[in-house]
Amino acid sequence: MIHNKTYNAMELETKHGTLIVEGPMQSEIIANLEFHEDLIAFRAPAQQHKAIIDIAKLPEGRIIIVRNEQKIVGYSTFLHPDPLERWSQGNMENLIELGAIEVIPTFRGTGVGKTLLRVSMMDDMMEDYITITTEYYWHWDLKGTGLNVWEYRKVMEKMMQAGGLEYFATDEPEISSHPANCLMAKIGSRVDVKSIQQFDQLRFMNRFMY
């Protein structure tokens, strides 16, 4: 499968300044931009900056960034699922995972997350993919937002729906371990029936286990 990447961008006006949401970005451009010190959800900012540069170098890797002038203040990552995850077991070239989405606290609540998802899906190539995201409540910033688990889940669902992702049932153990956890996915319009069936098999691998 040839992983074409077509650049798209949207401008977003907020009370804290104008943001550019753009991508997929080339690794060289990401490397030359500053990375905001408040992007700490997954690892230290310098390490996360390097991580998204490395993802952008992957054939399927897609990085959409939120830029305030020359500083990255948010991003989303798309790449093949981790080899240790269930979703990689089918070795599906056309299955891609929204691995991370992060925006600094200053710009939360301004529609940035939804815009990240919209720009991600503006590339026609995404119609060739099954795009998934796994949401686990223990990754959510409940303390920083002041939301409870169910309020945060509702916010996450609305954000993902902006990119066309919908709830899908699964028996994956970590997702099944708490009712707030969920699998969301978007099946592109050009995804073939065989791939959809393969995805269904990945979603329910324990149905015959007793």
Automatic annotation (TrEMBL):
Family annotation (SUPFAM superfamilies) = Acyl-CoA N-acyltransferases (Nat)
Q: Which GO annotations describe the biological process of this protein?
A: acetoin catabolic process
* Entry annotated with the keyword Cell membrane: no
Looking up Gene3D superfamilies in the UniProt record yields: 3.40.630.30
Q: Which InterPro entries match?
A: AcuA, Acyl_CoA_acyltransferase, GNAT_dom
Single GO MF annotation = acyltransferase activity, transferring groups other than amino-acyl groups
Q: Which UniProt keywords are present, listed alphabetically?
A: Transferase
Keyword Transferase in record: yes
| N-acetyltransferase domain location | 45-118
What this protein is called in its record is: GNAT family N-acetyltransferase
